[in-house]
Amino acid sequence: MDRNEYSDDRDVIANSWNRCIAWGLDQDHEPTPLCPEPVRLEEITRKYEELLSVTEAEVLPYYRNVLSNSRCLILLADQHATVLNSWGDERITEARLKPWFRPGANWQEQNCGTNAIGTAIAISAPVQIQRNEHFLKSNRSIIGSAAPIFDAHKQIAGVLSVFSDAYLPQAHTLGMVRLLSQSVENRLISRQFGTDHFQITLNTTADNFDSPWSGILVCDDAGYVIASNQRADQLLATATANSRLDELFTTHRNHILGHPDTEPLQLTTRSRVRLYARVRRPANVPGTKPQGAPAPLPTDQPASQPLDITRLEYGDSAVKRCASQSLKVLQRGVPVLITGETGVGKEVLVKALHRASQRRDQPLVAVNCAAIPPELVESELFGYEAGAFTGARAQGSVGFIRKAHKGILFLDEIGEMPLSAQSRLLRVLQERVVTPVGSTESVPVDILLVTATNRPLATRIDHGEFRADLYYRINGLCVELPALRHRADRRQLIQAIYDRHRDPGQSDALSPRVLSALENHPWPGNIRQLVNVLRVAIAIADGEDIQIWHLPEDFLAEFEASAVEDTPEPAPDTVDPANGTQSADPLARTLQVYHKCTGNISQAARELAISRNTLYKRLRELGVR
Ligand SMILES: Nc1ncnc2c1ncn2[C@@H]1O[C@H](COP(=O)(O)OP(=O)(O)OP(=O)(O)O)[C@@H](O)[C@H]1O
Q1: Is 480 in contact with 325 (CB distance < 8 Å)?
Q2: Domains of the chain, first to last
Q3: What is the pTM of this model?
Q4: Whose CA is nearest to atom 1 of ligand 1?
């Protein structure tokens, strides 16, 4: 069996049972979990420190966001099936089985028969084992899904598994555990090789590189693949290890390794499959080529990279103009002030500007002025001398402005900066020196400044809360990012964000009805709210394609509020066109109108002059939905 594909082939179970019989296991056998001595456990934990920390970083956010309402236990085991750690809800197991879900327990097939962890290791592939498929009777109350985590050399580094009660859809659980183990695998590879080697991320589209299902090739500077993930082998339909890039793609290796990391590169494999690649240079030698790296391609590129707006906009001319003008003036040292409602993507724009600027290899220091207590703003921004004030750290602090030296300083919510700090900032901008709190000495700084605000600064100036002279200093160029509801490309943006977050099994396009509801929403929280709504809907849909009723209630309510405001009251003498009468019973009338509108919720709600929420409730009562 191809180890990259999980199999629901029941041969997997039959073969495992045959192995158990060959080992002389008895179905009535009740093994002990074989907990190692505490010392040994400590050793194991130390040995697998990286695997443990990477897994925790990948698993815990997922657990909190998606699984916290489901009863399930996530286990990480080493390549010998010994549990290293577990997260989740122990209540899913019977008391007698609890020790099996704790660090130190061993799930090898030889010890406890057919089971998710042991069998996934035995067959080197993801597997799900249902209750009665367990060889030992004592395990037949368990349902487990497990997927091996492979290291960069395709050896098993560990196994992730999810044990759940019967209420979690099991196909979903297996998909989820595959996704998590793939994410851990990718992160391990990046950690191990990312600093010293080229990393090429491959996918079938140019906007999905961060997906765990991207292929990863780690290359040396001569273009040899020294490590890769399983997905890379799948996408390229070959074992990639030790191949040279020229053997894998029709493009010369120097062109691939010399490609700017801000732009996707289209590649064709030797088997004529078209893929997109993102090429990351070794992090250890920022912006320069490592020793022996391929000769740079002849290029007339300026020192700055082309602005990567592939993720900023999908055809909105206002956003495009904002981004390109900001980059031009920033490169010449002119401060940029970005305005726009909350959540429109001001910080995202700043990150793109930094990546595109000549200072991309220097720090981007982002400070949210509203998030720092007013009394600490000065010391946090300008730094302080050792012992400058009670509670200060003994060694002093350089402060955010000096941390941004040679790079870009982004002051978000600048309007919230206290007046005293405003005067100090003005001096930094005029004299290009910083004087730390408690010091008399000034330190020269070289920063490009970008500021942002979601509230008009003019009002604050009128109220004496913001210095007019500072306003003119920071406002070299003022650009406004449009609200989501005014963006011409919102349909494409919604689709792109959905695509980035969707479950692997979900259709890659939203249905026209859902898309239209999202497109017509007023979005007071802009893109931030859109991302949240989509993530909630994806979680609620639980692997199915998103339908209107998967959208969160508050979204529907907000949508309603705006829809009903715009809707004229229906004429009181409205009659049912089907039979010329209007039913007095609200439920019956709901049904009449719903059928008349051939199930179009928006139209029916408008006609009934009720909110879509109320319409859904009535339809549920009627058993229609
Ligand atoms: N073009 C985009 N594509 C995908 N996601 C985006 C885009 N722009 C913004 N986002 C997402 O929207 C959220 C808000 O973005 P961001 O923090 O940049 O907004 P902001 O305008 O700085 O907000 P605030 O004014 O509240 O600080 C983030 O989660 C970000 O990832």
Answers
A1: no
A2: 11-189 (3.30.450.40), 194-280 (3.30.450), 317-480 (3.40.50.300), 488-621 (1.10.8.60)
A3: 0.49
A4: 312
